[in-house]
TrEMBL record:
Pfam families found in the cross-reference section: ABC_tran
Keywords: ATP-binding, Cell inner membrane, Cell membrane, Membrane, Nucleotide-binding, Transport
Main location: membrane
Membrane topology value: Peripheral membrane protein
Gene3D superfamilies: P-loop containing nucleotide triphosphate hydrolases
Keyword Nucleotide-binding found: yes
Protein name (record): ATP-binding cassette domain-containing protein
Location within or outside the cell: Cell inner membrane
InterPro entries assigned to the protein according to its UniProt record, in alphabetical order: AAA+_ATPase, ABC_transp_ATP-bind, ABC_transporter-like_ATP-bd, P-loop_NTPase
Span of domain ABC transporter: 7-252
Family: Belongs to the ABC transporter superfamily.
Protein's organism: Oceanisphaera pacifica
SMART domains to which the protein is assigned, alphabetical: AAA (SM00382)
Keyword Transport: yes
Length: 266
């Protein structure tokens, strides 16, 4: 009997329907039906040019928006589009910009306690203790509990965002270009933290990223997207070394050129 994959995505697709001034419905496909699996303790990197559908896919996986068609299974259980409580306990998301994803009017302690209040039966003392433990887990201090987001650096904010994702002990974390806005030294720290947490907690990641160096370093598998289609998918080393499709080859050439430009600029 084969082992059930941690995450199974089956013929998932997303369309947006808008109305014109003439009341005609216009349908735009964010991404066409796609399927993939993710095993425990592994990382899938999703790469693609602007408009490829990669960020929309991340949001559909995390329940930020519903799919048009298709199914998502975690540990073999189908996750209904509106079952936010179940999904939150299994899969959590880190957004690209912590400056907009963290409420500036709430201190960090309250930001981290909110998912616990909504999704667990822990009392106030238990929630407080778990928040302090989670702050320590991501390399922050107990004192940060009382800080507000605007009082800490962007790198520290992303650690808070990671702590918020971890607080419910999920199996999977979806990160939508969560390290792309960080400077190179902070980016390295966050990558090492992600790898350490993965080893320690057995986490799986779905990582939307456009940095070839990051993808090579952190991912086990890569999926390349173009105009809403998956044009290349497989083990990271194989896909990044010998792409089999024309779009995959062009995409990676663009990434390589951009990577060299940034590297030379530094």
């Amino acid at each position: 009997m084969s082992q059930v994959p941690l995450l199974k995505v089956d013929n998932l697709s997303k369309e947006f329907v808008t109305q014109t001034r003439l009341f005609r419905k216009v349908t735009k496909t964010a991404f066409h039906p796609l399927s993939f699996t993710l095993e425990r303790g592994q990382t899938l990197a999703i790469m693609g040019d602007s408009g490829s559908g990669k960020s929309t896919l991340a949001k559909v996986l995390a329940g930020v928006m519903p799919p048009t068609k298709g199914s998502i299974y975690i540990n073999g259980d189908k996750i209904a589009a509106g079952d936010d409580k179940k999904r939150c306990q299994l899969l959590r998301m880190i957004f690209q910009d912590p400056n907009t994803s963290l409420n500036p009017r709430s201190n960090i302690g309250n930001i981290l306690e909110m998912p616990l209040s909504l999704n667990t039966n822990l009392n106030e003392a238990e929630r407080h203790e778990l928040v302090l433990d989670t702050l320590k887990l991501v390399g922050l201090l107990p004192d940060h509990y009382h800080f507000y987001p605007q009082m800490i650096s962007t790198g520290q904010k992303q650690r808070v965002a990671l702590a918020r994702a971890l607080i419910l002990s999920p199996n999977i974390i979806v990160a939508d270009e969560a390290i792309s806005n960080l400077d190179i030294s902070v980016r390295s720290q966050i990558i090492n933290l992600l790898l350490s947490l993965q080893s320690r907690l057995g986490l799986s990641y779905v990582l939307v990223a456009n940095d070839l160096g990051v993808v090579r370093h952190i991912s086990d598998h890569v999926m390349l997207m173009h105009n809403g289609y998956v044009v290349e998918a497989g083990p990271t080393q194989k896909v990044l070394t010998t792409p089999q499709s024309e779009h995959g080859l062009r995409l990676l050439q663009n990434y390589n050129n951009e990577y060299r430009w940034h590297h030379n600029k530094r």
